[in-house]
Amino acid sequence: MTLTNPRTDDDWRRDAACRDLDTDIFFPVTDEEAGPAREICASCPVREQCLEFALATRQDDGVWGGLTETERRRLRRRRREATRRAA
Ligand code: SF4
After folding, report:
1. Ligand 1 near 67 CB (within 6 A)
2. Given a cut of 60, is residue 4 above it in pLDDT?
């Protein structure tokens, strides 16, 4: 039997549009300065995986999946409320 190379949860990072870029772009001091990072994320093929990773691991800083920390916090709250309403 031949074992295939199992994909890990982090495999999405290989296809990240930000892979070889300066990470400073993704850690703006304010949300207003997040424009350049958002532009890169907008065309990133692994945007969804990146965002879900950031939500699942509670990344507090930086732009992940095109969303700032403030926006991710709002998204988490909206999802919690939707789950509560559906219950
Ligand atoms: S969505 Fe943005 S931060 Fe996430 S991997 Fe893609 S380019 Fe990087």
Report:
1. no
2. no
- For the CA of 41, the closest atom of ligand 1 is 2
Q: What is the DSSP string of the chain?
A: -PPP-PPPTTGGGGG-TTTTS-GGGGS-SSGGG-HHHHHHHHT-TTHHHHHHHHHHTT--SS-BTTB-HHHHHHHHHHHHHHHHHH-
Residue spans per domain, the chain: 18-86
**How far apart are alpha carbons 72 and 79 in whole angstroms?**
10
Q: Is the pLDDT of residue 49 over 70?
A: yes
Task: Look at the pTM and tell me if it is higher than 0.85.
Answer: yes
User: What is the CA(21)–ligand 1 centre distance, in A?
Assistant: 10
